[in-house]
């Protein structure tokens, strides 16, 4: 669907992909529909999918320590992604994601399908990995050259106060 391509175009992670390449990503995605209160995945679970929100809203919740209460951090909506670190197989999920609106439509891309796509179209893999690297290393001035603008996810650049890690849409969900 064309509308989906336009939504994906605005996502920093997919910055620089052609419409044709975006269509190939959509082709390997699965549509998943959730209702309010349903858990999409839990913190510390194994992650193997990236999710893109086509419609609706999800809530990102984090438990800082096992005995601490789970706290709501941020709500994400249409056109936003979460779980992108799963494409790199970097550890367990860093947060719990819960659906916060009925009929939330997510498009998921599994690591397996993504890897297969990258093997058949190395340009897609290159662009996405470069963008992911930019999104991960947003701390020095050098980024300004490397990551021109990945959909505004670089607002994290100013050095955060040491201990206080506020979880916003700019931080990465594994």
Structural class: alpha+beta
- Order of neighbouring strands in the sheet with most strands: 1-8-3-6
Sheet with most strands: 4 strands, antiparallel
First CA to last CA: what distance?
A: 27 Å
Overall, the morphology is: globular
Computed over alpha carbons, the radius of gyration is 16 Å
How many strands appear in the DSSP assignment?
Answer: 8
Helix amount, in percent?
Answer: 25-40%
Average pLDDT metric: 81
DSSP helix count? 5
Q: Can you walk through the features of this model?
A:
The protein has 174 residues and is α+β, with helices and mostly antiparallel strands. The protein has helices spanning 2-9, 19-27, 111-120, 122-136, 143-146, and strands spanning 30-34, 39-41, 49-55, 57-62, 71-77, 81-82, 96-99, 104-110. It has a 4-stranded antiparallel β-sheet. A 4-stranded antiparallel β-sheet has the order 2-7-4-5, with no helix packed on it. Strand 4 (57-62) and strand 5 (71-77) form a beta hairpin. The protein starts with a helix and ends in a 28-residue tail after the last helix. The relative contact order is 0.22. The model is unreliable at 139-170 (pLDDT under 50).
């Amino acid at each position: 669907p064309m509308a989906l391509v336009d939504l994906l175009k605005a996502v920093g992670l997919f910055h620089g992909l052609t419409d044709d390449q975006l269509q190939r990503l959509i082709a390997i995605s699965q549509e998943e529909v959730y209702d309010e209160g349903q858990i999409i995945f839990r913190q510390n679970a194994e992650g193997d999918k990236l999710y893109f929100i086509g419609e609706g809203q999800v809530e990102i919740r984090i438990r800082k320590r096992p005995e601490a209460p789970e706290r709501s951090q941020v709500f994400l909506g249409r056109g936003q992604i979460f779980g992108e670190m799963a494409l790199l197989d970097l550890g367990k999920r860093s947060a719990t994601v819960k659906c916060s609106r009925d009929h939330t439509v997510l498009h998921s891309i599994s690591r397996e399908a993504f890897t297969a796509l990258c093997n058949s179209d190395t340009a897609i893999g290159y662009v996405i990995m470069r963008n992911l690297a930019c999104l991960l290393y947003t701390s020095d001035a050098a980024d300004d050259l490397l990551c021109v603008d990945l959909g505004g996810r670089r607002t994290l650049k100013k050095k955060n106060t040491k201990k206080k890690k506020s979880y916003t849409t700019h931080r990465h969900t594994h």
